[in-house]
Design goal:
single chain; mainly beta; Immunoglobulin-like; nine-stranded antiparallel β-sheet; about 30% strand; globular
Length: about 550
């Protein structure tokens, strides 16, 4: 497993007149999501896809040396109970930070000096490590600690007594609670509840230090990230990276009129010849090359004639605006104050002027919240950077969602996916880009609806969760296992001590097994279904009288 780069610096606590502030050292950890055809750099300061200094770290295709994104970051804005503006928004690190490592103590509403140090890192896990752990679980519990991978043993989940140097009292990294005792104890069957073939977790907060980017007041939130990817060379999933973000208000009071945005700085090879646009139906922003050939630039290789299109899509929230600030020091320029950030998140220019349809989105007569919302391949009067004849250049965009209520200890969850589309230099997003986004978004929705968060049913695993029905659970007498359209399968049930109590094969003709559980003692059992060397595990509660 990769050794995540961690640079630890001395930290001291300095509580100011704002009780929500501690003085943490700047976030310094770096990791890479790289299981598939993308290598995506991750930072733990609310920023993504770069090294925190000046180099892009979103390589596509992996090992090509070509970069599709320069950087990205999250923007948050809300009002407190008294209507005061609160802002936490990251861009680059040239003027400071907005987010700091570690969780917020929900009892005190503060960040400890120790947690800032302990959590200045990432936690990486692979599906194969979880699979190996579950295999050990079937051999008997408690699993010897020497047989548990450090990635599982050190998973930063609630109540994990094996986690070093910090007591985790609140919900943190997601996990499957095998024995329903409310704490993470992997020796008794618990394991990280991830998605994909590789997943990376980290946690940050916005009260660990001053806000050097926005100069705003913090919202008082803890933010959980789970970045993940799938290895599937036969599908578009191999060119995608996913991000689940959980925002939790953990300081006193509620927040209202909450907006969240994704700041994206795309650099498709040569950063000086790009265009951007959006698709409102799929809640997506995207960047594409603004000319026919993507040249090399300052030692960075371009994509030539086959420049991809890069997109970012909200998977479970509606995009309420799409903006593209310029580099000019005027109404259309960069946000430099909390009000500016909020205006962009609400769909206006930074000074509160409404964006308008046509041209560069400024000074027209028809207001809009979305810039360049047409297919670049469509002629005027469609509105795209191509149709209005813009000069290609270095672009950034903000896509946002809101408003929402952000009440104390009520999580706000948002997920998005970044996809690199190999379109062979075409800018017609209707041909492959939008259909691919729609397909992956639908897979995401179907996955959540099925309750199978482990992986998508797109060739990742020959055992489709929807192809298995196990009921009732808890069971008092007969346990039915229906493999539906699967061609048979091996069924094995073991007790918590690893003792096998049942082993059998489903008949390919009937595909249904009925097992009398009343002959076994009450308690938890592990049921495994194996088809074509792939396994799924289920926790069964036997509860007969």
């Amino acid at each position: 497993m990769r050794k995540t780069l961690i640079i630890l610096t001395l930290l001291f606590v300095n509580i100011t007149s704002k009780s929500v502030f501690s003085q943490c050292a700047p976030p310094s950890a770096f990791s890479e999501l790289d299981i598939n055809n993308v290598s995506a750099g991750l930072m733990n300061g609310g920023d993504l896809w770069w090294d925190g200094i000046g180099l892009p770290k979103y390589e596509y295709p992996k090992y090509s040396g070509r970069l599709a994104l320069f950087a990205g970051a999250i923007w948050l804005s809300a009002l407190d109970d008294n209507g005061k503006l609160l802002t936490s928004a990251m861009k680059y690190r040239n003027t400071g930070y907005e987010f700091y490592p570690g969780p917020i103590n929900s009892t005190t509403g503060t960040v400890s000096s120790n947690s800032c140090i302990v959590f200045d890192r990432f936690w990486e896990i692979h599906r194969i490590e979880i699979q190996n752990h579950l295999n050990n679980v079937t051999l008997g519990m408690p699993v010897p600690l020497s047989q548990i991978d450090d990635a599982i043993l050190q998973w930063p989940a609630k109540g994990n007594t094996h986690f070093n140097n910090y007591v985790i009292q609140d919900d943190l990294a997601p996990f499957k609670d095998f024995n329903n005792n409310g704490i993470y104890d992997p020796e008794n069957g618990d394991y990280p509840d991830i998605k994909g073939d590789q997943a990376i977790f980290w946690v940050i907060n916005d009260i660990g230090g001053v806000h050097g980017i926005t100069n705003g007041d913090p919202i008082g939130v803890e933010v959980h990230f789970l970045a993940y990817a799938y290895y599937n060379p036969s599908s578009a999933l191999n060119d995608a990276t996913f991000y689940d973000i959980k925002v939790i208000k953990k300081t006193t009071g509620n927040a209202s009129d909450f907006y969240m945005g994704l700041f994206v700085d795309p650099d498709l090879g040569n950063p000086a010849d790009d265009f951007i646009g959006c698709d409102t139906l799929t809640n997506s922003g995207f960047a594409y090359n603004g000319d026919a050939f993507d040249d090399d630039q300052s030692g960075r290789p371009g994509y030539g004639q086959n420049t991809p299109i890069i997109s970012t899509t909200f998977l479970n929230k509606t995009m309420n605006s799409f903006s593209s600030p310029t580099y000019a020091p005027n109404a259309t320029g960069d946000a430099v104050s909390p009000v500016h950030y909020r205006n962009y998140l609400k769909g206006f220019w930074r000074d509160g002027t409404a964006k308008t349809i046509g041209g560069t989105g400024f000074g027209g007569t028809i207001p809009t919240s979305f810039m360049y919302f047409s297919n670049p391949a469509s002629p005027s009067p469609a509105w795209s950077e191509v149709s209005v004849g813009n000069a290609p250049g270095d672009r950034r965009y903000i896509q946002s969602t809101g408003p929402y209520s952000l009440n104390w200890m009520e999580p706000f969850d948002i997920s998005f996916v970044t996809i690199a589309h190999n379109v062979m230099g075409s800018n017609d997003v209707s041909v492959s880009v939008i259909p691919t986004i729609s397909q992956i978004a639908q897979l995401y929705t179907d996955t959540l609806a099925s309750g199978n968060k482990y992986d998508f049913a797109l060739g990742i695993n020959p055992i489709d969760e929807s192809s298995i029905a196990i009921y009732p659970n808890p069971v008092t007498h007969i346990l039915t296992i229906d493999l539906k359209n699967l061609n048979g399968g091996n069924i094995r049930i073991v007790d918590v001590n690893g003792r096998e109590v049942y082993q059998g094969n489903a008949n390919p003709n009937s595909q249904v097994l009925n097992i009398d559980m009343s002959i076994y003692e009450n308690g938890f059992y592990v049921l495994s279904v194996e088809v074509n060397d792939e396994k799924r595990f289920y926790k069964i509660l036997n509860s007969h009288k």
